[in-house]
Design brief:
Layout: H1 2-8, H2 13-16, H3 19-30, H4 34-52, H5 56-65, H6 69-81, H7 84-111, H8 119-122, H9 129-147, H10 154-161, H11 165-176, H12 180-207, H13 219-225, H14 227-268, E1 273-281, E2 286-294, H15 300-309, E3 318-326, E4 329-331, E5 334-336, E6 402-406
Parallel strand pairs: 2-3
Antiparallel strand pairs: 1-2, 3-6, 4-5
Length: 408
């Protein structure tokens, strides 16, 4: 029995802790102070450069510096207590903090527009329902750490899990680059985190007795006092669940097309291999832009065969475009994957002599692969001269031949 009593002993402080001290601690963290302003500005600088460097460690450091979580806990307590004075002060502090983070990140984003966007930024531009679940759990953990004296160290983990400054910094950087859709996605992630953290914190504080003017711990009263937050949370959940389903469908389509082409390309053209693909969904058609390394360019008839081998995911047909990057492999014994070793025979001395006969599979002369200008493949989204969404050939050889062909 003594052993069993020691197991439940740690829960006792949750019942005996002075609630007035907790209210004081939460209220002090919700006020707008000089320290609050400077720490959030510095956290934004760290987060912005960590995002631009694509450094996870630096971004985590920014999460620990930021103080945006304090006013959110203040909002949670104010709604539970019906304390409108605390509510106003917490709203002002959070609003000023958000504004500062956006301003600083936009400024940094304008300075470094030439830096390539990495995964640390892109991963925060398309939130889904999983992000909402993380924020709910993090908000509950943070509030529980506030009411439990033995869990103060857990605040560090909560700050990392419920990141607030990195999504805001991402929104500012993307806005500075004119990527308004991506900026909106990052800001939506911040809003989802804020609402989820606030509601979860309100629930935990309520269950632990932090609610004035009401004797009952009824959850109905909790929902009534947090009605606006709950409504907004449900709306976000529906939208983010739709985003989640859509992202899964996009990944399934991309994986299906990629696996089909990886199997089919070497069969259609010996020695060829798939480098990359870009799938663009339109209302009437699914456009697939593929880059292929091959000793001989993929011709239109082969594109047609590859297009027919793609597994349909719905009633929309595929429109396959292939860019052939000519790559030739050789060993000391000769060329690999091609029939003709000498692709550039020497010119004869006689001006009347006929040109050497070309082999059927020779890559030297392929009129069909040059019927369209290269710069039409794929659609120009990057503003570059070629309009290609794909990286340049890694070999950097000047003799690489590229051609875009559209299957009929």
């Amino acid at each position: 029995m003594a052993h069993n009593e020691s197991i439940v002993e740690p829960s006792e402080p949750l019942k005996s802790r002075d609630l007035a001290n907790i209210r004081k601690e939460v209220s002090e963290g919700a006020f707008l102070t000089r320290e609050y302003i400077w720490m959030n500005v510095l956290a934004t600088v760290v987060a912005s450069y960590g995002l631009l460097q694509n450094s996870t460690a630096v971004v985590i450091g920014a999460m620990l510096i930021a103080l945006l979580l304090g006013p959110i806990n203040g909002l949670a307590l104010a709604l539970n207590d019906g304390d409108w004075k605390l509510l106003n002060k917490a709203l002002i502090a959070e609003g000023v903090g958000v504004g500062l983070v956006l301003l600083v990140s936009v400024f940094i984003g304008r300075i470094h527009t030439d830096v390539t966007v990495g995964t640390e930024i892109l991963s925060r531009t398309s939130p889904n329902i999983l992000d909402l679940f993380i924020a709910l759990a993090g908000g509950a953990a943070g509030a529980y750490a506030l009411v439990s004296p033995k869990l103060k160290a857990g605040i560090v983990g909560v700050a990392i899990a419920t990141a607030l400054v990195p999504p805001l910094s991402t929104a500012g950087i993307m806005f500075a680059r004119g990527e308004h859709r991506l900026a909106a996605g990052a800001f939506l992630l911040f809003v989802a985190n804020l609402v989820a953290i606030q509601f979860a914190a309100s629930a935990v504080l309520w269950i632990n007795g932090l609610h004035q003017q009401v004797e009952s711990k009824s959850l109905l009263e909790l929902f009534r006092r947090n009605g606006f937050s709950l409504t907004l949370l449900l709306g976000l959940a529906i939208f983010l669940f739709y985003n989640f389903q859509k992202s899964i469908a996009v990944k399934v389509l991309d994986t299906t097309v990629r696996s089909n082409l990886e199997r089919s390309v070497p069969v259609i053209r010996f020695g060829a291999s798939l480098v990359d693909i870009n799938v663009v969904e339109e209302k009437e058609v699914i456009r697939v832009y593929a880059v292929v390394r091959t000793p001989v360019s993929i011709d239109p008839s082969e594109v047609d065969k590859l297009e027919r081998l793609l597994v349909p995911v719905d009633k929309r047909p595929y429109a396959l475009n292939i860019r052939s990057i000519i790559t030739k492999e050789a060993t000391k014994d000769g060329w690999l994957h091609i029939d003709q070793q000498d692709n550039n025979p020497p010119a004869t001395n006689s001006s009347n002599s006929a040109p050497p006969k070309q082999e059927e599979n020779s890559p030297v002369e392929e009129p069909s692969s040059r019927t369209e200008p290269i710069d039409q493949f794929p659609p120009d989204n990057s503003g570059s001269e070629s309009g290609s969404d794909f990286p340049a050939d890694a070999s950097g050889e000047s003799g690489i031949e590229s051609a875009g062909i559209t299957g009929q």
